[in-house]
Specification:
Blueprint: E1 5-6, E2 12-13, E3 15-21, H1 25-38, E4 43-45, E5 54-59, H2 64-83, E6 88-92, H3 93-99, H4 102-106, E7 112-115, H5 122-132, E8 136-138, E9 158-162, E10 164-165, H6 176-180, E11 184-185, H7 188-200, E12 205-209, H8 226-233, E13 241-245, H9 254-262, E14 269-271, H10 279-285, H11 291-304, E15 309-316, H12 323-336, E16 340-345, H13 363-386, E17 392-400, E18 408-412, E19 417-420, E20 430-438, E21 443-446
The protein binds iron/sulfur cluster (SF4).
Length: about 450
């Protein structure tokens, strides 16, 4: 990381940047890229906004709740700006893309607004804000390939690598096509070079990121699809594990499944959003598959990748979802038996097609449906986790345990956290650990079991 910015007289100017992030792994990685982009301008990361010269709120608008949190943070930052007018406050990410100039009206403390599509322009936009001392707003649509950007990563053993941006689909509940734009993939050679360089510095696991990660290459003329990209990066020296998120069911082709099954470094975990078990709801969501097509993909995945862990997203209370539709979703959860689910109540989002749908489900009913879905899933997850008791699992040791810093933690290929006792010299290594106890959200292991 950059330690400062040398002046012509040899003095070092250190400036501090505070970045707060809401939302998905893409956003988390965008924060690393923002830190990487401003590092050559002399900014180092700080943990508090009070001593920052630059404050960036990296926002998410996938749900109304996340968006409201941004506005309450901006309210608090008014006091920071009043005390130190020279501090630059920027709003980035999906809320910035969605609101654009309107953010300046809602919060006069804001100097810089740039959406998820404009991260690569951060140094130029920041320079403009600093020199003109006037608010700068950038919400243009990008064209061409997704860029390769520097990133200031916090972890050594694992790294997120963005391989594509945006989405060509049009799910009626989703803000992504509006906030992140059309699908753009990075060049495969640039992805290869980034991963090779990470592995040369001790990285052992990469998570390939994209809104529709498995449709990588669909809009580029390079002729490299996601399966070919996996084949390309698999031999990289030092690379032990490959993860990827998020996959779209329609892009989970037989060719890709064959590749996932053939390559041993690809982890045995697939996150495959189902969203609903009712065809009527799936159609209103514009998901472009029926439940039986989804079920067929799941069956094929399980046939080709024995022991694969399957997780999914479910939205309850989508407009027009009847009790009978919802019961089909519950039946789907019982039938498929996912390893885990991420269930959410539908919330109205700006610039989405679902806004104009009729028959919005009342909030108390959404709450009831959410609890019903979780009640079905809880014992399934528990039973699946219990099956690890007594098994020996290969885990990649990531570092100290989050719950007890004197212990170590790593993950199974299926993405379950395992805490165990061992020396720090194991960090970054694949080790065999016996599972001695199954807890609510993790496993306890032993090197001797
Ligand atoms: S596939 Fe659908 S839910 Fe996923 S990012 Fe694209 S529009 Fe959103």
């Amino acid at each position: 990381m950059t330690e400062g910015w040398p002046l012509t007289n040899g003095a070092i100017v250190v400036k501090r940047v505070f970045i707060k992030t809401w939302g998905c792994q893409m956003n988390e990685h965008d924060a690393e890229r923002m830190a990487g982009l401003v590092a050559p301008m002399g900014y180092i990361l700080t943990a508090t906004p009070e001593d920052a010269d630059l404050i960036l709120l990296n926002t998410c608008s996938i749900r109304d709740k996340a968006e409201q949190k941004v506005y309450s943070d901006l309210g608090r930052l008014n006091a920071v700006k009043a005390a130190r007018p020279e501090v630059v406050i920027g709003v980035a990410g999906c809320v910035a893309q969605q609101e654009g100039r309107a953010l300046l009206q809602r919060s006069p403390a804001v100097d810089l607004v740039f959406g998820s599509k404009g991260i690569e322009h951060l140094p130029a936009l920041l320079t403009e804000a600093l020199t003109t001392r006037r608010p700068v707003v950038y919400t243009e649509d990008p064209i061409g390939l997704a860029p390769t950007l520097p990133a200031d990563r916090r972890e050594r053993v694992r790294a997120w690598v963005s391989i594509m941006e945006g989405c060509e689909n049009a799910c009626s509940f989703c803000v992504v096509p509006a906030t992140r734009g059309r699908e753009r993939s990075r060049l495969s050679q640039e992805i290869y070079d980034e991963i090779a360089s990470l592995c040369a510095s001790g990285c052992r696991e990469v998570t390939l990121l994209g809104q529709n990660v498995n449709s990588y290459g669909r809009t580029s003329s390079e002729g490299v699809d996601f399966a070919a990209l996996l084949d390309l990066i698999h031999p990289i020296e030092g690379l032990a594990r490959i993860r990827y998120t998020t996959s779209h069911p329609n892009a989970m082709t037989p060719r890709l499944m064959e590749t996932l099954a053939r390559l041993p470094k690809v982890c045995r975990h697939v996150h495959l959003p189902m969203q609903a078990g009712s065809d009527r709801t799936l159609e209103r969501m514009r998901r472009d598959y029926t439940f039986s097509e989804y079920l067929a993909r799941v069956g094929e995945l399980r046939r080709r990748l024995p022991n694969v862990a399957l997780t999914t997203d479910v939205i309850v209370g989508f407009p027009g979802e009847t009790d009978a539709d919802f019961r089909e979703t519950l039946a789907a959860l019982e039938m498929i038996e996912f390893d885990n689910i991420y269930a959410f109540k539908y919330s109205k989002r700006p610039n989405t097609a679902a806004l104009v749908l009729e028959d919005h489900v009342p909030e108390p009913e959404k709450d009831r449906r959410l609890q019903a879905a979780l009640a079905i899933q809880r014992p399934i997850t528990r039973r699946k986790n219990d099956a690890f008791q007594g098994r020996v699992e290969e885990i990649l040791v990531e570092g100290p345990s989050k719950t007890d810093r004197s212990r170590l933690m790593g993950r199974t290929s299926s993405n379950l956290v395992v805490n165990f006792d061992g020396p720090p010299t194991l960090i970054g290594r694949l080790v065999q650990v016996g599972v001695i106890q199954v807890k609510a959200n993790s496993l306890d292991g032993s090197l001797d079991a």
